[in-house]
Amino acid sequence: MSQHTDHSTGASPAPEATPQTMQLGAARGGFLSQLRVTLARRTEGRGLALLTVVVIAAAILEPVVFTSYQVTLGRVALIGLVALGLTAVILMGELDLSVASTLAVSGVVMASIPDIWLGVLAALATGLIIGAINAFFVVVVGINSFIATLGMLFALRGLAFVLSDEEPVRLSNIDAGIAFGTPLLGPLTPRVLLFIAAFIALQIFLSRVKAGREFYAVGGNRQAAMDAGIPVRRRIFTGFMISGFVAALAGVINTLERTAADPTAGSTVLLASFAAAIIGGVLLNGGRGSVLGTLIGALALGILQVSLTLSGVQVDIQDIFIGVILLLAVITDPANLRAALAGVRSSFRGREKAQTPV
Amino acid sequence: MTSESAQTVIEASGIVKRFGGAVAVDGVSVSVAEGEIHAVVGENGAGKSTLMRILAGILTPDSGTVSVGGKRIDGGAKAALDAGVALVHQELSLVPEMTVAENIMLGSPPTAAGFTKTKELKRIAAEALEEIGVSVDLDEPIARLSVSLRQFVEIARAVARSPRVLSLDEPTATLTPAETDYLLRMLQRLAAKGMAIIYISHRIPEVFSICTEVTILRDGQLVETTAISETTPSAVIDAMVGRELKLDLEVSRDAHPGEVVLSATGIRAPGVHDVDLTVRAGEIVGLGGLVGAGRTELVRAIVGADPRTAGHVTMTVDGKTSSIGGYQSAVKAGIGYVPEERRTDGLALTMTVADNVALPNRAALSRAGVLSFGAITRFVRHLADVVGLRPPEIQREVGQYSGGNQQKVVIAKWLGRKPKLIILDEPTRGVDVGAKAEIHRLVRELADEGAAVLVVSSDLPELLELSDVIHVVRDGRIQGTLPRAEADEKTVMSLASGETMVSA
Amino acid sequence: MATKESLTEAIAVAGSGAGGIEKKKFSPLLWIAENGVIVFTAALILFAVIFVNGFASLPNITDVFYRAAPIGIVAVGMTFVVISANYLDLSVVAQVATSAVIFIGISNLYGLLAGLLVATLVAMLYGIVNGVAVGFFKANAVIVTLSTTFIGLGILRWLSGGSIFFGPEDGPIRAFGQARLGPIPASALLLIIITLILWFVLNRTTFGFAVRAYGSNKEATRLAGVNTTLVVIGAFVITALAAMIGGFALAAFSNTAVSSMSDGYEFRALAAIIIGGTSVFGGKGSVLRTLLGVIFVSVLTNILVLSGIGFGFQQMAIGALIVVAVSVDALARRAAKK
């Protein structure tokens, strides 16, 4: 046992004798390996794959989709705007099913107010309030966000009916609507420009702003976020407010373009926007995904919808398409799929061996 | 180097912390000076981690004070962090999708008008990494790093806050020997710059290679604090274990191991590297080792509760051999598995005792898929009696029972199936002494009746008392096998902690 | 010797008479969450009888029964999905309409038995697709059933062209729809029979036992050797079969079928289940209480209709009811933990 006495003075070895750095990470290689690393870090793979398929199919079958790009961009902007708001919430591992109804309610609120600017402000405020109510139930009361926003989805749909007397509400200021539909910058209509602005704003928020980056921490490892002093509850509040605000903005845009607010608006948008975010790589459990992925997902679904419409495919069949895409997107969610397949492989491993005589 | 001259940086005195009824830390005082590397050692559950969390302000002590640089710290993790106490957690607390740089500055990145100053963020992170001498791409998401590299990022995160006191809780548990060696040298360098370092480890050689002082805890109490130069590894292990007693042979049973029942070969799974294991009928095999050594992962891979990446498991019952693939095939083959976490994995807490016990036995307690409540009541009453459930109210929610009774219910679930092999992972953790003795009796009776038994336990006396043979697991491998006659606390502890010396 | 010490201590602990049980504290909130439906339903009916003109008339009561029956059948079935801690099955809205259209449309052409056969097959398909996606692929039930709703409704509208199907005046479906026992329509009796059957399945069979256990603790149930994938598939299949029968009852009520006839059923059914005291956290619940929840929701809707309150307010009320009921449950559980 005495051999340990020399260890006991072990504090003395000179630090200089040790290597000063340890290369533990992957070494930086040439351009190609750098590219591979960059690709492996991205989450947009599935979205990009779908977009590629859709673009190629559309180019062959219905090339008019790309010449009538104003229609296409309009559709992409509608799906994409709601999907952007959802992305903020899903990144934190929460869900906002009330977006479609928020879109409808805020549209009705706007159309009901004669003054156009006052209407827009009231509509956007409605979105923020709805977001805050959702967040209240999730953060303060502690209800699962799926159920809380599902209840809100139904309640708000009712509210849209009540406010509109179950009829589409005409916009009193038709001129504003017409002005809104005309291209403003080159071929880009204000709707598309607003979508681009929202995309850039959210991209900056989630990649550059401290609070936005922390959304990833809230969704990726909530305990670590709390330990690091991140105000998790406040971030969740912010996320739902963003989602509500963006959905309301989509409602405003919709109302301006159609010069009327339909209380039933938005039900297909709900499905398409979820599909856009999830196929775009935003993980339902939170922490993983990007605004860019959502944009790619929205592009894919928008082009798909418009090319189906232009091919004369009825809306019902479009719903089937998007429903199938969403279903495939959730069951091929990388984390879930890997676990499911590993379990199957493991039990088959047992069976194979069982056939060999022991 | 007892550093009488150096200034005391952190001082804790009379710390007491209770969880429910159990005392986790009981009147411990400890102080660490500048440039000192102070080891805190003890068996699993001795209170080391709780003490560290109190020092870092994450837990508030029931009594006692913590002061840094003479000033008393009150007011949680933030206050402790501001005073310069940084803790490297045992469980990794990084955000997988954020980059290395962001994780290093999580929660407090440099900002201007709410915007993260990316360049400065990377500069600070790079400095912290340079300080600990680790080179890693700052833009890499944590999810893409190896587990050991994540550990270094975690340390960089603590160092980036320029702490006066750096405490590390089992930092080498997931590291290779080369990485461990590197980490130890790094800590010496940091100490040489004047940082006070608190180092928690099970691994005695590590403690003796870098630490200057050692504080030994046992059952939440302070055994002693001594200079490393004045003690030996053997003495430290004795103090940790607290008893120089040999195994009490009075309770040992005569084992008559029969045929091999469980045979596992080449088992690989995350945290498990190529393990072979057999258990015979009537034999109690113990798996010893430190927390995080891979024992739970091993048994879960054997029964198929988690997928294994390689390996083959068979059960031989009455001369018939069957292969174990998925978990259900394990249950069908007669394996009963009592998981480590009984509240989350073992019991449906909102259901009754009867429901929980009947669940794995529902086929036997039903006819054509219809449950027979008379049969269930008789069956569960009988088993409640066998395991000594107190009070034996089988229609009560399991969640209302104490830990010991809950564990008896988990065991009762499997007893009813007359298991050919029962695997118990930490069967008596959080269980009062009375229930513990009863559980031990049950395990012995099972083996006496011819069942094969595999026990994972971090409780050394328990392991020695129950097992006919002990495999000691470290780093996901079986490091040594000790027959009952050769096993004592010290040899097990030495193997488990990597102190290969076997004492006389 | 260590053991001897332990044993003496053991005796000491046993002697101290702790008894090993923590007494459960009475929580009024939890009581309301679980049993409030009985009081609320009684109070609501009392209120309606006294204050609402036209409520306490035989034709109105019959009408309430007629409208409660299809929703009730859907709700008692969906209770299985809720108890298994998988939130809900949104696609019941598509399932009910599909079943109604099949019963009227196919029965017109090939007879009731053919209609029943096709409807059953379609229901099984719904149950299996939802169940496999949720149970095997571990996908989120809300998103899965949201997509199957759109797929299902899309197919239904596409194939039916959104048109209304009328059953023959002398057909068996019409006969069922008009059959009554005093003021109680046959469909309400069907609801009671199905509730009793599903009560039996949930409380008396090994499958129902596994569903409850799974809802209480998924991992512990898996580690008890239960094939949890099959449990989830089973819960969705039962929900789908109940929705199929609900579609039949709905078609029989009006002897017509159209793809939009079950709009809002998913929410009404969920409201009934949650108000009935089944927890969205899983594990706790009962189909009998769901039946009470259905009566509550139906009476409430009837009061609103009789008072001339529009469709929009009704939706708001149901939505608010869901959120409030879940809030009470969540707060009660949090209080109980403390």
- Strands of the widest sheet of chain C, in order across it, are 1-4
Q: Ranges of chain C with pLDDT <50 over ≥5 residues?
A: 1-19
How far apart, in Å, are the first and last alpha carbons of chain C?
40 Å
Q: What share of the residues of chain C lie within helices?
A: over 70%
**What's the SSE pattern of chain C?**
HHHHHHEHEEHHHHEHHH
Biggest protein-protein contact in the assembly: A-B, 56 and 74 residues
The low-pLDDT segments of chain B are 244-250
Radius of gyration of chain B, in Å, reads: 25 Å
Mean pLDDT of chain C: 89
Q: How many beta-strand segments of chain B?
A: 25
Distance between the termini of chain B: 30 Å
Strand content of chain B: 25-35%
- List the strand order in the largest sheet of chain B: 6-10-11-3-12-13
Proportion of residues in extended strands of chain C? under 5%
Strand segment count of chain C: 4
Keywords:
heterotrimer; A: 358 residues; mainly alpha; two-stranded antiparallel ribbon; 17 helices; 2% strand; B: 504 residues; alpha/beta; six-stranded mixed beta sheet; 33% helix
Plain-language structure description:
The complex is a heterotrimer of chains A (358), B (504) and C (338). Chain A has 358 residues and is mostly helical. In chain A, strands 2-3 form a two-stranded antiparallel ribbon. Chain A is globular and about 65 Å long. The longest helix of chain B is centred in the middle third of the chain and has 16 residues. The radius of gyration of chain C is 23 Å and the shape is globular. In chain C, a hairpin with a 2-residue loop joins strand 2 and strand 3. Chain C is mainly alpha-helical and 338 residues long. At the B-C interface, helix 10, helix 11, helix 12, strand 21 and helix 14 of B face helix 1, helix 9 and helix 10 of C.
